[in-house]
Amino acid sequence: MQWQPEAHEWDMGYALFFHNSVVFGREKALSCGTVGGRHQTPAAVRQAHALADALESCLRCDFLNTKNDHEWTLSGIGYYIIGQLDSRGVSLSDWVLRGIDQWMLSLTVIAAETVGGDSMVQLYDMRPLNDVRLEASEFQRLVRRMQAMDEEIHLAYFRVTYQQFQTLLRKVRPYIMHRRNHRAPISAEERLALTLRILSSGMNQTTAAHSYFMGKTTVHLLLRETCDAIYRVLQPEYLATPTLSDWEQISADFWKKWNYPNCLGAIDGKHVVIKAPNNSGSSFRNYKETFSVILLAVVDANYLFRIISTGTNGKQSDGGIFANSTFGRKLEAGDLNIPGPAPLPRTNIMSPHVFVADEAFPLKENLMRPFPGRDLSGNHRNRIHNYRLSRARRPVENAFGILAARWRIFRRPIECSPDTVDKIVMACVCLHNFLRTETGLSNSSTYVPTGFVDTDDRDGDYREMIHSDTGMSAIRRSGNHGSGRAAEIRETYADYFLSHEGFLKFQDDMIYGKY
Prior knowledge:
Protein name: DDE Tnp4 domain-containing protein
GO cellular component, one term: nucleus
Structural class: alpha+beta
Shape: elongated
Radius of gyration: 29 Å
Subcellular location: Nucleus
Strand content: 5-15%
Cofactor: a divalent metal cation
Number of strands: 10
Helix content: 40-55%
Number of domains: 3
């Protein structure tokens, strides 16, 4: 089987070849005959000769010693090389463009030595192709036009309307606007546009760099900075820790919409899959043998995220995810300012306020999880309890489903450092709450249209959009056993759901499959 070099081996090999072409000459460079330390294929050698021809064409122009500093800048040399390569049928793939970058940096050093440090060749701070960003980038060709002409495409492209985009821009502009230096900076509007496009489409940063005529490093830094700004401006209004009155309203909403009393929120966690971080060993490797960071969230009855914890690496044991989260520690310490015990509706039975969770979380006095499978066989009461708890958990399942369906960056592994991934996650959660609130909390808005989320009798449309995704995965079930007091509280709920005061007409039909 003929060896085919990996992408990074092309990069190393051709960067070395370009450098050697200048320092040692063409034949010496070709005689090295290696790419990434291995022998080149015949096709690679032909490509190398074509590249060498292009470089020699530049060298014959004697641009190193020209006295006309307007004729040969590095940008001009870059365009000349690209034209020469194109005329020889060399495709401008990533490794070619990176090689040109490396060769031109080497050329700057050689040029400085050639003319005694007074080189007429100027070091560029932008890839030559990106010099035409102000005229040719996707932002200029498409975004500006659809802002003025097509609201529907604008919504599909960004996941926000033009008016919502402008609202966000006014909020984040002070944090992402850069002062002008010798080159016009990327505008705050373009920074926000590119960030929203990456988050909403899931396009990788290389594709984004090509579409917006920017360097990949620029795109990475821009994405990180803008996500941080989005979180900074939206968090105080759309993701603030609930107050006592907020908790009381959340509890009322859960009883009204999901028929679970004294409920302060539904909890779930997801592994957000990432590219393996450099030098991380197995720190971020989870039970599925992928690398991830963990997002733990509390969601209210209206699919709004109310508390999130991010940053835990995927290697964390499932039992420790909750205990080591910010939310878990605050709940244990009593620092969440939640209401005290209150009577269950239409009774004088006192019960603490609780959060609802699945088997991945421990049973605690303020945290209810289902009865285990061994306690369900032939036990109607326990099955009814588990159905009611599962129904109350639907908001968090729907919220994560909406998040992944609308912000497609979560639909495949994210190629960023864990710290940047945290900023992306927090920005997307804030954007979710912003749009859910701004478009109204009904299930017929542009952000959450009719039929998009799960209901009692049908699965939501979002499931079709994310069924084969690999960017988020569930945390595993935990074998945690609760205290005696926590078990008593769960028994109280189970009895209540069979009582006249807590009974639902359709609950028997739901667990016995009559719907």
